[in-house]
Amino acid sequence: MSPSDQPAAAGPAVHDGLLGCQIWLLDDDKALCRLLEPILNSRGWRPRSFHRPDDLLNALDGGAPDLLVLDQMLPDKSGTHVL
Questions:
Q1: By C-alpha distance, which of 26, 12, 19, 15 is closest to 56?
Q2: What is the pTM for the complete model shown?
Q3: Which element (helix H / strand E) includes 22?
Q4: I need a surface site. Which of 8, 37, 40, 59 has the fewest CB within 10 A?
């Protein structure tokens, strides 16, 4: 079997040091968050979605994520404002 006949990999490998990292998503698009969460979980990350800026800001009282993904066009505040 030649290399071109082999099935494509499922995606890029994740460095062991990144496994278990918390990734928080702030996006008012709930369908997009439902799509992304299982993908991130399958890579060994721990995603958590927020759909309102105030919910994310309140959650920060309990700690901070390793990575924060912010939507820029939210109804209440921009992602930059939240940052």
A1: 26
A2: 0.76
A3: strand 22-26
A4: 8
Which among 53, 58, 54, 67 is positioned nearest to 24, based on CA atoms? 67
**8 A C-beta contact, residue 14 and residue 58:** no
Closest CA to 20 of 50, 48, 53: 48
**For 1-83, where are the alpha helices, taking DSSP H only?**
30-42, 53-59, 79-82
Both ends of the chain: CA-CA distance in Å?
50
Per residue in 22-60, pLDDT tens? 999 999 999 999 999 999 999 999 999 999 999 999 999
The Cα 71–Cα 29 span in angstroms is 9
Residue appearing with tokens 């439902």: 34
